[in-house]
Structures are given as structure tokens and as C-alpha cells.
Amino acid sequence: EYTDLLNCEDQILQEVYKKKHLTSIRNHINELKNKNYQDYLGDKKAEFIMMFIPNEAAYIYAMQIDHNLWQEAYDSRVLIISPTHLISVLRLVEQLWQHDRQTRNAIEIATESGKMYDKLVGFIEDLKLIEKSISSAHNAYDKAINKLYLGKGNLISRAEKLKEMGAKASKSLPQ
């Protein structure tokens, strides 16, 4: 339609070709809108699909004829792209995806960090229990040693007294 429009000198036919040009673009927008390509990216989802018009002049002319065309496409989740904008838009999309990956990595790092922190808290609690158990065992050991030979009336002093009184034993206690 655009080529016909350029080659036409009749003003009435030019109006017909203008309408056909816009209708062709709108039909393509609706076709893309209805196919929902944005939703077919697996677990990732795109907000928009790009519609490339390979002829810069055809793109500009369509925008001049209907100033609302770009907004209509946008509202249909379709971005109309011309050759002038193609590389910059693709680079922008690449940067957005990279930023998205970095954001997802940061979220995953934060999640894993939280899990590691919780595990560290549990480990410290376990160490405190071990310390308490060791302290309790050490206290029990001290009490046993006290009963064995340190405290008043300890078992060793009583055993030695019994030996002195004539208890028959074949062995002697170590010093």
C-alpha cells in the first residue's frame, strides 16, 4: 500500500492508499495482539511485542497520518519499531533483561543469606547447649572428685582409715 501511495498522483487514490496503509498496520497490530506472543516466553513474561516496519519512510508516514497509531499499538502491548530505532531498542531490551537477571540474583542471594543466617543462629544455639552440657559435666566431675578425695570425709581418707584399722587389702591406693 505504501509503495502504491508513493507512485500515485491522483489525490483521491492517495486517500484510499493512505487508509489502506493504516489499515494494514492496524491489522498487523491486531494480529500480534491476538496471538499474545508476549506470553510465550516460558517462565519469563514480556510486557510487549515489537512490530518492525522495515521501511523508515512508511513508518514516519503512518505516524504522520494518524498521531494516535503508536499509542493504539502500545495499548495493545505492541511496540512499533522503525529501522532507526531497532538497534537502540534491542540494546535497551538486552540491558533490561540483564538488570532483571541481576535483580533476580540479588533476591536469591538475599534469600540464601537469610537461610545461612538462620542456620548460623541454630549453630550458635547448639554450641551454647554443648557449653552448658560441658559445664554441667565439669560440675558433676568436680563434685565426684570432691567426694573421692578433696572434701571433708572423702572416700579415699575413709578407705585409708579402714586399711589402718586392719582391713585386708592386697593393693594400695595411688598417691
Instruction: Calculate the terminal CA-CA distance, rounded to whole Å.
Output: 115 Å
Order of helices and strands: HHEHHEHH
Q: Assess the beta-strand content as a share of residues.
A: under 5%
Determine the fraction of residues in helical runs and give it as a percent range.
Answer: over 70%
Number of strands: 2
Overall geometry comes to rod-shaped
pLDDT under 50 segments (min length 5)? none
Largest sheet: 2 strands, parallel
Q: Rg from C-alpha positions?
A: 44 Å
Mean pLDDT: 88
Strand arrangement in the largest pleated sheet? 1-2
**Which class best fits the helix and strand makeup?**
mainly alpha
Number of helices: 6
Could you explain how this protein is built, in words?
This protein has 6 helices and 2 strands, in the order ααβααβαα. It has helices at about 1-5, 10-35, 55-65, 70-75, 85-150, 155-165, and strands spanning about 50, 80. A two-stranded parallel sheet has the order 1-2. The mean pLDDT is about 90.
Task: Summarize the helices and strands and which ones pair or pack.
Elements: H1 2-7, H2 11-35, E1 49-52, H3 56-65, H4 69-75, E2 78-81, H5 83-150, H6 155-164
Parallel strand pairs: 1-2
In short:
With 175 residues, the protein is mainly alpha-helical.
